[in-house]
Please model this.
Amino acid sequence: MTRLMLHKKKRNFFDESDAHELRCLLLRILDGSAFASIFGFNQILVVRASMSIFCSTFISTNEYVQHY
Model:
């Protein structure tokens, strides 16, 4: 995600490498929720929290990129 946040100014779109990074991040989030469920955590709550973080990060990154 760091690379996504450090794009050049005046860039207002995501390219294919950005989409790949977002997919990898999503997979890591889902892997984390599966790991948490092994230890007895409520998987649905973990997924909801993870998706909330993922979506807010994506939206804030998108707004940052569109701002410049």
